[in-house]
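Section: Multi-chain targets

For targets with more than one molecule, the full set of components is provided together so that the structure can be written out for the assembly as a whole rather than chain by chain. Components appear in the order listed by the source. The example entry contains two components.
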Amino acid sequence: MTTTLARSGVIIEVGGLPIQLHVNNPVFIEMLEKRYAGFVAPSGPAKFEFEIDLVAPGVISASEDVQVTWQAGLWRMERGDFYAEWNPALACGRIRQTANPYSLDCVLRIVHTLLLAREDGFLAHASSAVRNGRAFLFAGVSGAGKTTMASLAPPDVALLTDEISYVTRRKDQYFAFGTPFAGELARPGENMTAPIAALYLLAKGRENKIESIGTVEAVRGLLEDILFFAKDRELVNLVFQAACDFVGRVPVKRLTFVPDARVWELIR
Amino acid sequence: MNGKQYVARSPQIAARMMGDEMMIMSAIDSTLFTLNEAAAAIWNAADGSKALEEIVAGKVCEQFDVTPEAGLKDAGELVERLAGHGILIVSDTPIVRAAAAAKGSR
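Its structure, encoded as tokens over all components, is:
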């Protein structure tokens, strides 16, 4: 079910965190409702709010790459196609961008990484899926096989995402949430959550096998896949500690696979 | 090496002992380093108040069965490498501020 707020905004809820987006453009809102289908909250209070200013196409920021900086109580996020400010204390922010969904997608990912870092969680370049009530993550850089694993999943598997996995911690247990952040499959994941049973670092090979790896290799592999934008000392420390904590509590192994459905026989 | 060399952990890092290895991540460029037990012993003792030769004598030689000369040579190379990445601060006098800041890391 998708409902807009008097056609002036939409609430997108990922990882149980509702973010209200105010934008005075019904066509853009409709596009967001389609893109984030399954993650649009019908109503209710949002945890954070953003005003979106849609501007004509052109360069909005001089930064070609994503830049995230903290200054005077504000997070500033920018790339060529957007500029955003977010005041966590006031729970509100502003985004200037053109009417394309990719800019907003990037801002949302950044906001979630900043929030998750303070809760011992993270976003990771990983596909993830739920089988028998347990979540499995398949991590790797572009080309490692995240989307392949997702597309090979049998019917009893619920796909959380083929691109960006959402990991939170509650006490000593970690949970994966579905996300609308899609990769090559170009469709949002299931909006559901499950405790994480294992994280697999993907490698393509000539046979399907799961191998144990050392703690240091696991932390190193995980850190390579965690989304992280801000070059901020405190946040670097939080992300590093989150990765170490995760590896200490969740099995992290190497999954070598050939691209056919039999690999899922190992994932139970 | 002339004179004493004092070393202190940079506050621009995150570190955690994982098993018998120390993992260190630079907050400057997110580079990861892994130190073995002997190197970790030096790292943990690098609070800016002790000279490197004191650290080697007190934390390395006996525990890892190396001579002071060999220990100091290896430690000097380690310090040079880590300092080159900005995660260790080196001075010819005790480093008070850096030591205090380093205490703040988890």
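The mean pLDDT of chain B is 87.
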